[in-house]
Amino acid sequence: MRYRKKNKEPIGQVMIPKVISIGFFGGFIWSLIASITAFFNFTSVSPKTFILRSWLQTEWTDHWLGQLISIIILSLLSILLALLYYVTFKKIQGIWAGIMIGFVLWFIAFWLLEPIFPNIPAFYMLDSDTVVTTLCLFILYSVFISYSISFAYSQQLKDENTG
Hints:
Distance between the termini: 18 Å
Order of helices and strands: HHHHH
Transmembrane segments: 20-44, 64-87, 94-112, 132-153
Protein name: YqhR family membrane protein
Organism: Gracilibacillus xinjiangensis
Keywords: Membrane, Transmembrane, Transmembrane helix
Number of strands: 0
Pfam families: YqhR
Strand content: under 5%
Number of domains: 1
């Protein structure tokens, strides 16, 4: 186990709070942007379409409260993805890992998990605006997560070696 020189804490213990905050805020920011793109009809799906409307067909889920609850749930789920990224890909520098992970996440959400979300049209029924917008959002989200975590990890190693 690698330790920091100053206070002898393992690097993982220093990085985990950073990874959690990167995951939460990444999920919050990009879910909020996804909600805005749905509001302006750039896409026919929004966070509430995935999280709440697929299982609950009550009226409140179609309003701002449903969107807010969905954004918070996606932010919490994003923490898990950030932790998984930290464990597996933290040493990879650059944006290419994030781009590839964004493609994979989009494929999982819109192709593999499509039967779980009955409120989402099948992939071949989605309009091109929805496909392009959601694919770009997934890529931007995962680039944000991957670049932020790999940057924080490299900075932590740099601080350890200099300090």
